[in-house]
Design a protein that fits this description.
Elements lengths: L3 E6 L7 H9 L4 E4 L8 E5 L2 E5 L12 E4 L4 E2 L1 H13 L9 E4 L3 E2 L2 H10 L10 H9 L6 H4 L7 H4 L3 E2 L1 H10 L4 E4 L24 H7 L8 E7 L2 E3 L12 H5 L9 H8 L3 H11 L12 E3 L1 E2 H11 L3 E5 L9 E9 L4 E2 L6 H6 L1 E8 L16 H14 L3 E5 L7 E3 L7
Parallel strand pairs: 1-10, 1-11, 2-5, 2-10, 5-7, 6-8, 7-9, 11-15, 14-16, 15-19
Antiparallel strand pairs: 3-4, 12-13, 16-17, 16-18, 19-20
The structure holds inosinic acid.
């Protein structure tokens, strides 16, 4: 019996899904992207090689897998061809044997990009034409891949061999007992329906989006893994209760300068902006797509509980635990204070969310390098207590912990939720 596993972002995107997908891909037969477009970006580190993807699932690095871009994805043909050729130049050949594009996926046009560049600023979009393309789709005036390949575009012929009715590929794989991995882009709090609207993306990154974005039944999903960083980040505008420092402080920072001992001292004396700076610099929190510095903050259990509810998370993959090393005190948000009233549930009204102040619980940090840990018992006691707290405060088990960018830098805790 094969399994169908959904990997979903449990925060505001950039949770390190690429690495988790890459690990699971080893045992998958088919790897699918179900939402978003080249607004996403993930980096996969294999040995000394660094691969950046915006569209193609990272399963392509495993050669013999079938990778699918589902109907829920929006595709910029020029970007996709660039990615195919970039991979080919590094020895990874991409053909219809390992990549299929849904005939119903919508195409991002130049006009969508121009519109996004003009109008997306207030939201802080990536400017890749994503929102306007989904607008065309919903208003029933979009261009689908099946029609694009019949057009006179210079890219049409190049993409033609890849375009298929991919629902068949995926459903047949499921019926034939193959392992299928479904990969969401962005994160739950950027979901068009369930995120911090209007500061959201225009698709459904949540686990439910995997069914509509690929064309499979909810009944076929075996497990749902939500990926969350051991802290949090957000790119672009919008409310962010546990943010450390302000959006303006973050924007004005020089990304080429490293951390100083004064930064660490200041952070450890309680300067919030410097705590955020340590997370940003140690975590290399700069956009893969836009290179923008990411806003950083403490782990937010209120938001995580919400994400786990909406997604029906079976297990969390906690990433970048190593980034917290060196901070003597760690905080975790356990509730929000809305001007004297404590709330434990994530409010949907962003006006209320903007007024929420985090109620924190403090934990002791650790100084040891944890990047070599491969078992829980190899982590310092403080790191184990921190993970226990995330598990208890979110009410969701931790399935995996990542302590570095490499495939091997991973602690597996709930193998039964994986392939
Ligand atoms: P759009 O998806 O380009 O329309 O941007 C809408 C919002 O989603 C902006 O705040 C972006 O910064 C954010 N966003 C889009 N894609 C990603 C991603 O892959 N990671 C993090 N944030 C993203």
């Amino acid at each position: 019996m094969g399994k169908t596993i959904v990997i979903v972002g449990g925060q505001w995107g950039d949770e390190g899904k690429g690495k988790i997908v890459d690990i699971l891909t080893g045992d998958a037969d088919v790897v699918c992207r179900y939402n978003g477009g080249n607004n996403a970006g993930h980096t996969v580190v294999v040995g000394t090689e660094n691969f950046k993807f915006h569209l193609i699932p990272s399963g392509i690095l495993h050669r013999s897998k079938m990778n699918v871009l589902g109907n829920g994805v929006v595709i910029d043909p020029e970007v996709l061809i660039g990615e195919i050729e970039g991979l080919a130049s590094r020895g990874f050949s991409v053909s219809e044997k390992n990549l299929s594009i849904s005939s119903s996926a919508h195409v991002i046009k130049k006009s969508h990009i121009e519109e996004d560049e003009k109008k997306g600023r207030a939201i802080g979009t990536t400017g890749r034409g994503i929102g306007p393309c989904y607008v065309s789709k919903i208003s029933r005036s979009g261009l689908r891949m099946m029609d694009f390949i019949k057009s006179s575009s210079p890219y049409a012929n190049r993409l033609k061999p890849f375009v298929k009715d991919t629902y068949l590929i995926v459903n047949n794989a499921i019926s034939n007992g193959k392992n299928v991995l479904l990969e969401g882009a962005q994160g739950t709090l950027l979901d068009i329906d369930h995120g911090t609207y209007p500061y959201v993306t225009s698709s459904n990154p949540i686990a439910g989006g995997a069914c509509t974005g690929i064309g499979i039944s909810p009944k076929s999903i075996s497990s749902i893994i939500a990926v969350l960083k051991a802290y949090s980040t957000r790119v672009g505008s919008g409310p962010y209760p546990t943010e450390l420092g302000t959006e303006n402080e973050t924007k004005s920072e020089d990304r080429d300068l490293g951390l100083t001992t004064q930064d660490f001292d200041g952070a450890n004396k309680g300067n919030e902006y410097l705590q955020g700076k340590v997370l940003r610099k140690q975590g290399m929190e700069y956009g893969t797509t836009t290179k923008r510095p990411r806003r950083t903050g403490w782990f937010d259990c209120v938001a995580a509980r919400y994400a786990n509810t909406i997604n029906g998370t079976d297990g969390m993959a906690i990433t970048k635990l190593d980034v917290l090393t060196g901070l003597n005190k760690l905080k975790v948000c356990v509730a929000y204070d809305t001007g004297g009233k404590r709330i434990a549930n994530f409010p949907l009204d962003i006006e209320v969310l903007s007024r929420c102040r985090p109620v924190y619980r403090e934990f002791r940090g650790w100084q040891e390098d944890i990047s070599h840990a491969r078992k829980l018992s190899e982590l310092p006691k403080e790191a184990r207590l921190y993970l226990d707290a995330l598990q208890n405060l979110t009410g969701t088990p931790i399935a995996m912990v990542s302590v570095g960018p490499e495939r091997s830098q991973t602690i597996i805790l709930k193998k039964k939720l994986l392939f």
